[in-house]
Amino acid sequence: MDKYGLIGYPLGHSFSISYFNQKFADEGINAKYMNFEIPSIDELPEVIAKHPELRGLNVTIPYKEKVMDFLDSISPEARAIGAVNVIRVTHSGNKTLLKGFNSDVIGFTQSIEPMLDKKWHKKALILGTGGASKAINYGLKALGLETVFVSRYERPGTIQYNKITPEVIKEYKVIVNCTPLGMYPQTDESPDLPYEAMDNHTILYDLIYNPDQTLFMRRGAEYGADVKNGIEMLLLQAFASWEFWNGKEK
Q1: Can you give the pTM of this predicted structure?
Q2: Catalytic residues
Q3: Is the pLDDT confidence value at 131 over 80?
Q4: Looking at residues 25-40, what average pLDDT do you find?
Q5: What is the pLDDT of residues 136-161, one digit of tens each?
Q6: What is the full DSSP assignment across 94-153?
Q7: Cβ–Cβ under 8 Å, residues 222 and 195
Q8: Which residue in 10, 14, 75, 7 sits closest to 234, CA to CA?
Protein backbone atom coordinates (compact mmCIF):
# COMPACT_ATOMS: atom_id res chain seq x y z
CA MET A 1 0.00 0.00 0.00
CA ASP A 2 1.34 3.42 -0.97
CA LYS A 3 1.64 5.97 1.82
CA TYR A 4 1.43 9.75 1.80
CA GLY A 5 1.64 12.12 4.72
CA LEU A 6 2.05 15.49 6.36
CA ILE A 7 5.08 16.69 8.32
CA GLY A 8 4.92 19.63 10.71
CA TYR A 9 4.79 20.53 14.39
CA PRO A 10 2.35 20.77 16.01
CA LEU A 11 -0.24 19.36 13.62
CA GLY A 12 -3.50 19.35 15.59
CA HIS A 13 -6.45 19.33 13.18
CA SER A 14 -5.25 18.42 9.68
CA PHE A 15 -7.29 19.14 6.58
CA SER A 16 -5.01 16.94 4.45
CA ILE A 17 -5.44 13.66 6.31
CA SER A 18 -9.23 13.72 6.08
CA TYR A 19 -9.24 15.00 2.49
CA PHE A 20 -6.82 12.42 1.09
CA ASN A 21 -8.10 9.40 2.99
CA GLN A 22 -11.62 10.26 1.79
CA LYS A 23 -10.30 10.64 -1.76
CA PHE A 24 -8.58 7.24 -1.57
CA ALA A 25 -11.76 5.61 -0.27
CA ASP A 26 -14.00 7.28 -2.87
CA GLU A 27 -11.73 6.49 -5.81
CA GLY A 28 -10.66 2.98 -4.74
CA ILE A 29 -7.00 3.99 -4.47
CA ASN A 30 -4.94 1.55 -2.40
CA ALA A 31 -3.19 4.19 -0.30
CA LYS A 32 -3.14 5.75 3.15
CA TYR A 33 -2.41 9.30 4.32
CA MET A 34 -0.73 9.78 7.72
CA ASN A 35 0.33 12.62 9.99
CA PHE A 36 4.01 12.77 10.99
CA GLU A 37 4.24 15.21 13.88
CA ILE A 38 8.00 15.70 14.23
CA PRO A 39 9.43 18.16 16.77
CA SER A 40 12.55 18.66 14.61
CA ILE A 41 13.03 18.64 10.83
CA ASP A 42 16.16 16.55 11.50
CA GLU A 43 13.77 13.61 12.00
CA LEU A 44 12.69 13.68 8.34
CA PRO A 45 15.30 11.10 7.14
CA GLU A 46 14.06 8.72 9.88
CA VAL A 47 10.45 9.11 8.70
CA ILE A 48 11.54 8.34 5.12
CA ALA A 49 13.61 5.33 6.22
CA LYS A 50 10.85 3.87 8.42
CA HIS A 51 8.20 4.14 5.69
CA PRO A 52 9.60 2.77 2.41
CA GLU A 53 6.06 2.87 0.96
CA LEU A 54 6.01 6.69 1.10
CA ARG A 55 5.31 8.31 -2.24
CA GLY A 56 4.71 11.87 -1.18
CA LEU A 57 4.57 14.36 1.68
CA ASN A 58 2.98 17.69 2.42
CA VAL A 59 4.95 20.13 4.56
CA THR A 60 3.43 22.65 6.94
CA ILE A 61 4.71 25.10 9.55
CA PRO A 62 7.38 25.45 10.76
CA TYR A 63 9.31 23.42 8.14
CA LYS A 64 8.47 24.91 4.72
CA GLU A 65 11.85 26.62 4.51
CA LYS A 66 14.02 24.31 6.64
CA VAL A 67 13.01 21.21 4.66
CA MET A 68 14.78 22.52 1.55
CA ASP A 69 18.16 21.45 2.98
CA PHE A 70 17.02 17.79 2.95
CA LEU A 71 15.91 17.61 -0.69
CA ASP A 72 17.73 16.25 -3.73
CA SER A 73 16.06 18.72 -6.09
CA ILE A 74 13.64 21.64 -5.95
CA SER A 75 11.32 22.96 -8.65
CA PRO A 76 12.31 26.38 -10.04
CA GLU A 77 9.09 27.91 -8.71
CA ALA A 78 9.61 26.59 -5.17
CA ARG A 79 13.23 27.76 -5.24
CA ALA A 80 12.17 31.25 -6.35
CA ILE A 81 9.55 31.37 -3.57
CA GLY A 82 12.00 30.03 -0.98
CA ALA A 83 9.55 27.53 0.51
CA VAL A 84 8.47 23.93 -0.17
CA ASN A 85 5.18 22.39 0.91
CA VAL A 86 5.03 19.29 -1.33
CA ILE A 87 7.66 16.54 -1.61
CA ARG A 88 7.64 13.78 -4.18
CA VAL A 89 9.37 10.63 -2.92
CA THR A 90 10.86 8.46 -5.67
CA HIS A 91 12.54 5.12 -5.03
CA SER A 92 15.22 4.28 -7.60
CA GLY A 93 17.16 1.11 -6.82
CA ASN A 94 18.73 1.61 -3.39
CA LYS A 95 18.30 5.39 -3.56
CA THR A 96 15.39 7.48 -2.36
CA LEU A 97 15.10 10.83 -4.11
CA LEU A 98 13.16 13.78 -2.69
CA LYS A 99 11.95 16.60 -4.92
CA GLY A 100 10.31 19.73 -3.51
CA PHE A 101 7.47 21.76 -4.98
CA ASN A 102 5.19 24.59 -3.86
CA SER A 103 1.42 24.22 -4.22
CA ASP A 104 0.61 27.33 -2.14
CA VAL A 105 1.10 29.64 -5.09
CA ILE A 106 -1.06 27.48 -7.41
CA GLY A 107 -3.91 27.22 -4.93
CA PHE A 108 -3.80 30.91 -4.06
CA THR A 109 -3.58 32.38 -7.56
CA GLN A 110 -6.36 30.16 -8.93
CA SER A 111 -8.53 31.12 -5.97
CA ILE A 112 -8.02 34.90 -5.93
CA GLU A 113 -7.74 35.61 -9.66
CA PRO A 114 -11.53 35.63 -10.31
CA MET A 115 -11.91 38.34 -7.64
CA LEU A 116 -9.45 40.76 -9.25
CA ASP A 117 -10.34 43.77 -11.39
CA LYS A 118 -7.30 45.38 -13.04
CA LYS A 119 -8.90 48.81 -12.78
CA TRP A 120 -8.93 48.68 -8.97
CA HIS A 121 -6.56 45.95 -7.87
CA LYS A 122 -3.00 47.05 -8.59
CA LYS A 123 -1.39 46.92 -5.16
CA ALA A 124 -1.56 44.44 -2.29
CA LEU A 125 -0.64 44.27 1.38
CA ILE A 126 0.63 40.90 2.64
CA LEU A 127 0.11 40.50 6.38
CA GLY A 128 2.92 38.36 7.82
CA THR A 129 6.38 37.33 6.69
CA GLY A 130 6.42 33.53 7.13
CA GLY A 131 6.76 30.76 4.55
CA ALA A 132 3.20 31.10 3.22
CA SER A 133 3.61 34.85 2.70
CA LYS A 134 6.48 34.22 0.27
CA ALA A 135 4.25 32.10 -1.97
CA ILE A 136 1.46 34.70 -1.74
CA ASN A 137 3.93 37.41 -2.76
CA TYR A 138 5.13 35.32 -5.71
CA GLY A 139 1.53 34.64 -6.78
CA LEU A 140 0.37 38.26 -6.52
CA LYS A 141 3.36 39.47 -8.53
CA ALA A 142 2.65 36.80 -11.16
CA LEU A 143 -0.87 38.27 -11.38
CA GLY A 144 0.60 41.73 -11.98
CA LEU A 145 0.19 43.34 -8.56
CA GLU A 146 2.71 45.40 -6.59
CA THR A 147 3.18 44.02 -3.08
CA VAL A 148 4.30 45.17 0.36
CA PHE A 149 4.81 42.95 3.42
CA VAL A 150 3.33 44.08 6.74
CA SER A 151 5.07 43.07 9.96
CA ARG A 152 4.82 43.82 13.67
CA TYR A 153 8.59 44.38 13.69
CA GLU A 154 11.01 46.71 11.95
CA ARG A 155 12.34 44.63 9.07
CA PRO A 156 13.87 45.58 5.71
CA GLY A 157 11.29 45.73 2.95
CA THR A 158 8.28 45.77 5.26
CA ILE A 159 5.97 48.33 6.82
CA GLN A 160 4.57 48.14 10.31
CA TYR A 161 0.90 47.96 11.26
CA ASN A 162 1.02 51.36 12.96
CA LYS A 163 2.07 52.92 9.63
CA ILE A 164 -1.03 51.64 7.80
CA THR A 165 -3.19 54.73 7.53
CA PRO A 166 -6.61 55.05 5.85
CA GLU A 167 -4.71 56.49 2.86
CA VAL A 168 -2.66 53.29 2.56
CA ILE A 169 -5.84 51.19 2.65
CA LYS A 170 -7.33 53.27 -0.16
CA GLU A 171 -4.19 52.68 -2.26
CA TYR A 172 -3.69 48.98 -1.46
CA LYS A 173 -7.05 47.46 -2.32
CA VAL A 174 -5.99 43.81 -1.88
CA ILE A 175 -5.09 42.58 1.62
CA VAL A 176 -4.06 38.99 2.29
CA ASN A 177 -3.80 37.68 5.84
CA CYS A 178 -0.95 35.16 6.14
CA THR A 179 -0.85 35.33 9.96
CA PRO A 180 -2.66 33.00 12.42
CA LEU A 181 -4.57 35.97 13.89
CA GLY A 182 -8.23 35.02 14.22
CA MET A 183 -7.72 31.27 13.82
CA TYR A 184 -9.75 28.97 16.05
CA PRO A 185 -9.79 29.03 19.08
CA GLN A 186 -8.62 32.70 19.21
CA THR A 187 -11.48 33.82 16.98
CA ASP A 188 -11.84 37.24 18.67
CA GLU A 189 -8.52 38.50 17.23
CA SER A 190 -7.88 40.33 13.97
CA PRO A 191 -5.04 42.27 12.33
CA ASP A 192 -4.91 45.90 13.49
CA LEU A 193 -6.02 47.85 10.41
CA PRO A 194 -8.19 50.91 9.71
CA TYR A 195 -11.10 48.84 8.41
CA GLU A 196 -13.32 51.93 8.15
CA ALA A 197 -11.25 53.06 5.12
CA MET A 198 -12.27 49.96 3.15
CA ASP A 199 -15.01 49.92 0.50
CA ASN A 200 -16.58 47.66 -2.09
CA HIS A 201 -13.36 47.66 -4.15
CA THR A 202 -11.35 46.23 -1.23
CA ILE A 203 -10.53 42.51 -1.26
CA LEU A 204 -9.76 40.78 2.04
CA TYR A 205 -8.39 37.27 1.55
CA ASP A 206 -7.69 35.18 4.66
CA LEU A 207 -5.59 32.01 4.44
CA ILE A 208 -7.41 30.82 7.58
CA TYR A 209 -10.39 28.50 7.02
CA ASN A 210 -11.40 27.78 10.63
CA PRO A 211 -13.64 29.64 11.41
CA ASP A 212 -15.33 30.06 8.01
CA GLN A 213 -15.47 33.79 8.50
CA THR A 214 -12.73 35.36 10.62
CA LEU A 215 -13.05 38.66 12.46
CA PHE A 216 -10.70 40.14 9.80
CA MET A 217 -13.23 39.17 7.13
CA ARG A 218 -16.26 40.30 9.13
CA ARG A 219 -14.79 43.71 9.94
CA GLY A 220 -13.96 44.34 6.27
CA ALA A 221 -17.35 43.09 5.07
CA GLU A 222 -19.04 45.68 7.32
CA TYR A 223 -17.61 48.35 5.01
CA GLY A 224 -18.42 46.50 1.79
CA ALA A 225 -15.17 44.60 1.24
CA ASP A 226 -15.20 41.42 -0.86
CA VAL A 227 -13.97 38.65 1.46
CA LYS A 228 -12.79 35.06 1.03
CA ASN A 229 -11.30 32.42 3.31
CA GLY A 230 -8.64 29.81 2.56
CA ILE A 231 -10.76 26.67 2.04
CA GLU A 232 -10.81 26.83 -1.77
CA MET A 233 -7.06 27.45 -1.78
CA LEU A 234 -6.63 24.32 0.36
CA LEU A 235 -8.68 22.20 -2.02
CA LEU A 236 -6.73 23.49 -5.03
CA GLN A 237 -3.45 22.85 -3.17
CA ALA A 238 -4.48 19.28 -2.41
CA PHE A 239 -5.28 18.71 -6.07
CA ALA A 240 -1.88 20.17 -7.06
CA SER A 241 -0.11 17.94 -4.47
CA TRP A 242 -1.62 14.83 -6.06
CA GLU A 243 -0.44 16.00 -9.50
CA PHE A 244 3.10 16.61 -8.21
CA TRP A 245 3.28 13.24 -6.44
CA ASN A 246 2.22 11.48 -9.60
CA GLY A 247 4.82 13.17 -11.75
CA LYS A 248 2.55 15.66 -13.51
CA GLU A 249 4.78 18.67 -12.95
CA LYS A 250 3.51 22.14 -13.66
Answers
A1: 0.89
A2: 64
A3: no
A4: 97
A5: 999 999 999 999 999 999 888 899 99
A6: TEEEEEEE--HHHHHHHHHGGG--TTT--EEEEE--SHHHHHHHHHHHHTT-EEEEEESS
A7: yes
A8: 14
